[in-house]
Amino acid sequence: MSLNPQQMDATRSELRENFELSGLSEKQIADDLDISITKLEHIFDLNQSSINDPWILRNYLIEKVEEIGKTPVQFTALKGDWHHYWFLNSRVIDNRQMSSGEY
Question: For residue 32, which of 21, 23, 20, 24 has the smallest C-alpha distance?
Fold first, then answer.
């Protein structure tokens, strides 16, 4: 599944809003997900090769926002149970296995 331009804009915004709500730094997130800050920025911009990576970041941010007692911003395109999308690798997402490389 590919996102249309409006969905891409909304997803970028929703990722950033949840990042802000989390109170975490980019370095903290990159360290937690075992990726570089460059790769993290590519994921925030939806400029990476793996379609699983944004879902991993999405789930991570939702978890971190909820841990501090806040309500995450709802996602309009990255929604529902990723286990039900045939084009996603739910095992990779569940294990937070980001793709290799910077993209």
Answer: 24
